[in-house]
Specification:
Shape: elongated
Helix content: over 70%
Structural class: mainly alpha
CATH class of the domain at 68-167: Mainly Alpha
Number of strands: 2
Number of helices: 9
Radius of gyration: 26 Å
Distance between the termini: 41 Å
Oligomer: single chain
Strand order of the largest sheet: 1-2
Order of helices and strands: HHHHHHHEEHH
CATH topology of the domain at 68-167: Receptor-associated Protein
CATH architecture of the domain at 68-167: Up-down Bundle
């Protein structure tokens, strides 16, 4: 499972937006009067959003895997300390086990401590690399427990239980919000189906003629308006789905891209 660095995300945003802007400018300058103008605008937005959406999803999966392995790590640390190991020794022993992407971060901590970095500094570096909410909450408590001395394993046991309870609550929250995400998808596809139905049964019959009640609006112009409306609904509906499902707007980019591509394919393949 890949770790996505901030620098990689910034480069992806910069490159994808630059390519998207170039495609959009080319469409405006060359294809402004062409029937393919909207297609190139759609391509520009899709190119600008797709790479960041993929990286956001990969980062989400990586952070989720980190959080899910934290309770197992804390249990192994408690067991190691109960055998007489110090906290750094317990971490070194844990780094030899498989905790998914967390294992690589533990090995970095162990290497840093072997180079002379203190346990507290190595732990703070670990927190800056990972940056998940659960890690950010637990690191200050671990540092304070290490400073106070005594039986540090007594802190790790309830902390592991707390993280496990938090993960369980997060899974329950996602299960409860999943129907609302489905509603966003269903509402969008109902909207697209309605557009297709209108053009198959009403607007196509008057192709090239003004639509009743809209003297200056032809069926082609109406299709273009509906196309833009579906595009806007897909984009913002996807962002809302990401906020409800994963808790961040960035996580909604994948939903936006999926909805936009699906809507575009449906409208173009069926109405053409």
């Amino acid at each position: 499972m890949l770790k996505i660095e901030k620098r990689q995300k910034k480069i992806a945003w910069a490159v994808s937006i630059s390519v998207g802007v170039v495609v959009m400018l080319a469409a405006i300058l060359i294809l402004r009067e062409s029937m393919f103008f909207d297609d190139f605008l759609f391509l520009a937005v899709t190119v600008a959003l797709s790479p960041p959406a993929v990286l956001e999803y990969l980062e989400y999966r990586w952070k989720k895997a980190i959080d899910e392995h934290l309770p197992d790590l804390f249990r192994s640390i408690v067991q190691a300390q109960q055998t007489g190991m110090t906290l750094p020794q317990a971490l070194e022993n844990a780094s030899k086990r498989n905790y998914g992407p967390l294992t690589a971060e533990l090995r970095k901590m162990v290497n840093q401590m072997s180079w002379g970095l203190s346990f507290e500094e190595a732990l703070q570096e670990f927190g800056r690399r990972v940056e998940t909410p659960l890690v950010q909450r637990t690191i200050p408590m671990i540092i304070e427990a290490s400073r106070s001395g005594g039986h540090v394993e007594k802190v790790f046991a309830p902390m592991g239980n707390f993280i496990q309870a938090t993960l369980t609550m997060e899974k329950e929250r996602k299960a409860q919000t999943r129907p609302y995400i489905a509603i966003i998808y269903v509402a969008f596809f109902v909207f697209v189906f309605t557009i297709i139905l209108l053009f198959k049964t009403f607007f196509v019959e008057m192709d090239g003629s003004p639509i009743i009640g809209f003297a200056a609006l032809t069926s082609g112009e109406a299709w273009r308006i509906f196309f833009h409306m579906s595009f806007i609904q897909a984009f913002f509906g996807g962002l809302v789905a990401g906020k409800m499902g994963e808790g961040t707007i960035g996580a909604g980019l994948k939903h936006s891209v999926i909805l936009m591509v699906s809507g575009y394919a449906a409208l173009r393949l069926i109405t053409w």
